[in-house]
Amino acid sequence: MCWLALIPVAMAVVGGIQQGNAQDAAAQSAARDARTNATYANDAANDALARGRYDADLQRIRTGQNIGTQRAAMAANGGLVDQGSNATLQEDTAALGELDALTIQNNAAREAYGYKVQAAQGFSNANQLVLQGQTAKQNSLLGGVIKGAGSFFGGGGMSMFGGASTGAGTSAALGGSSLLNNNQAYA
């Protein structure tokens, strides 16, 4: 007959295990999603860097085309293309073109950095979610054991912390007998 008293304990423990498993599964799923999003952010960072290199190369090609156009115009006007102000103009065009290319690469690096930070936060969040799931699982199991023990010990008139568990303290605190209801005790 004593084993019948353990049924509520077993039910509470099993309930705690099921609740913990459900919380852990939800945390694992959220962690998987966070890792996936972080991987996408890493991919976006790599793409931003590749686009930056490509666009910078295109800018350098355009700069070379502009210098070629300048040289052709200078030569058509009968000027010497490699001397004097004509040479200075080409050098300035080349310097400004390279500055534009470097600006494009710098902007791409800044964009990539933002994605890398986002990815790092995503991986960190995934790790935290895994830990939270494991903690919730352990706490639910522990809560189920405590609840089961409380129902086992509390059902026999004893609290699990020792001493009798009676409601006599309430009526004594109200200063009346247990025959009075709360409204009568204050009258």
Report on the structure:
- The model is unreliable at 156-178 (pLDDT under 50).
- This protein has four helices and no strands.
- The two termini are 48 Å apart.
- Helix content is 81%, strand content 0%.
- The chain is mainly α.
- The protein has one domain.
- α1 runs antiparallel to α2.
Short description:
This protein has 187 residues and is mainly α. It has helices at residues 7-76, 84-154, 168-174, 182-185.
The whole-angstrom Rg is 38 Å
DSSP strand count: 0
What is the N-to-C succession of helices and strands? HHHH
- DSSP helix count? 4
| Overall mean pLDDT | 81
Low-pLDDT residue intervals, each spanning 5 or more residues: 156-178
- The backbone outline, from C-alpha atoms, is rod-shaped
- Head-to-tail CA distance between termini: 48 Å
- Whole-number total of structural domains: 1
Q: What fraction of the residues are assigned to beta strands by DSSP?
A: under 5%
Largest sheet: none
Helix content: over 70%
Instruction: Please state the structural category.
Output: mainly alpha
